[in-house]
Amino acid sequence: MNDEKPQSKMKTQELFRQGALDHHREQRHGSADVLHLSDKPLRPLFFALSLTFSAGLAYLVMGRVDHYAEGPAVVQISDRTEITAVVEGVVQSIHVVPGQAVCEGQLLASFRSDIDLAELERTDLALSKELVGMLRDPSNNTVRNAFASLHTERQYILRRLRNRAILAPRGGIVSDVSIRPGQSVSPGDGILALAGSVSQVTVLVVLPGRYRPQIERGMEIRIELAGYRHAYQRLKVDYLTDEIIGDAALRRYLPTKAADTIAVSEPVVLLHGTLPGETFHADGVSYRYYHGMVGKASTRVRSESLLVTLVPAFKYLFEASDD
After folding, report:
1. To 5 degrees, how large is the angle CA 138–CA 142–CA 144?
2. Is 82:177 a contact under the CB 8 Å cutoff?
3. Domain edges within the chain
4. Are 176 and 195 in contact (CB under 8 A)?
5. What pLDDT digit, counting tens, does each position of 149-176 carry?
6. Cα radius of gyration (the chain)
7. Considering only the top CATH level, what class is 66-79+196-322?
8. Cα angle at 192 between 187 and 196, to 5 degrees?
9. pTM score, two decimals?
């Protein structure tokens, strides 16, 4: 047994370096201490994190998100009269130009109808024949009735021919000519427009009908005309309809040329507003409004907390607490 201990010491000395063994003996006589860490470097970081969290929470609770109703808008010039064709025909001549001042009853344009002229010629020949027969036998009621019927038909043809002469219904300034000589027109087609000397510029706004309960008179509307980005025009709602209408009914309210450029996919409500002047500014340049210009309109309909927007369940909690 005694021989084994010296052998184990020799093995230990051979396994470790002498310097390591001496250092180990010295440490055994000393006392170890606890590792101390200071929180001073972490205090600014903790304060910054706490401040950021508090600011974020306050923004979630106090921040608001606005919801807007958007839709197309059309510029309209008041005191403007749209003149349309009453009968079918071919434009024979145009007697005015845009910007020309005209008086009531002045000839604006005339149409030609070969069919009506042929009918008038046929009726005149038939009238002449019946007139001869009536002079030969004044007591013949058949001839007299035929003559009266042809006379009525002739008056109707003359009225149609007179309708092909377009006269100014009132005095004004020719603002738009939509026809050219040789063009075929149908009843209802636009011919030209007359504007007054002093006009007011209004805007017809088309918004989805689901927003009607949230829109009131006096609310602000923002208009951005097509082709003039960020040149916003602001106006107030002067009038809005109580009726929600569809696409077919909407066509009756739109200018003739703008009706084909606006399409809606749901029932809509109509708003009216008045622009402050006859011109607007874009990129430092002044431009004039023209009838039928289109753009995009938007108006704020409601505002809610950012927290409710991100987590809709909070909305029901707030409503329950209010009750």
Report:
1. 50
2. no
3. 66-79+196-322, 114-163
4. no
5. 888 888 887 777 766 788 888 888 888 8
6. 45
7. mainly beta
8. 130
9. 0.58
